[in-house]
Fold:
Amino acid sequence: GEDVEQSLFLSVREGDSSVINCTYTDSSSTYLYWYKQEPGAGLQLLTYIFSNMDMKQDQRLTVLLNKKDKHLSLRIADTQTGDSAIYFCAEEDAGNMLTFGGGTRLMVKP
Amino acid sequence: DAGITQSPRHKVTETGTPVTLRCHQTENHRYMYWYRQDPGHGLRLIHYSYGVKDTDKGEVSDGYSVSRSKTEDFLLTLESATSSQTSVYFCAARFSYEQYFGPGTRLTVT
Structure:
């Protein structure tokens, strides 16, 4: 079946850029998503990219997609302490089912 | 949050007892999903529904059943809870190409 992999942990200083990486295996993915989860809360959709795009920018967030290498990244510019959370990437298959990565915990140090 | 609520938010139950978790949505979404979240596994799909009385199995459906008698309610039942079903359960509903999540139910099976 499909597999989505993320690194477990990322630590950055406030004001720096954060880059969270994700790899996936399903070559028929239609959309790829980034979700944010704060402690004790559900998942909040941050942004998404259609599989025929290679970049999408939304305020401080930039999503890069390398479809050839099946690699997705989320860049957060000017990272703030409020960005500390777990970030999940997810890929959607042709049947509209999501497969999630294990999540990357982002810690932002003041 | 796309009008998604879950009840109860927390539950402790004993092994072998039946448990029903409820997901309620107010936006008339056709597609609804139940996931479980466990450390290191991200979110895994248990069951989903594509309309009233129309449901199907996900990746980790063993030990779970679902029902959807009304568009707004999607119920997840553990017929005989086991300790391996201790988890955080999230409901989601789909609007267009986006899934929106409820706040989660933390279930502990002792």
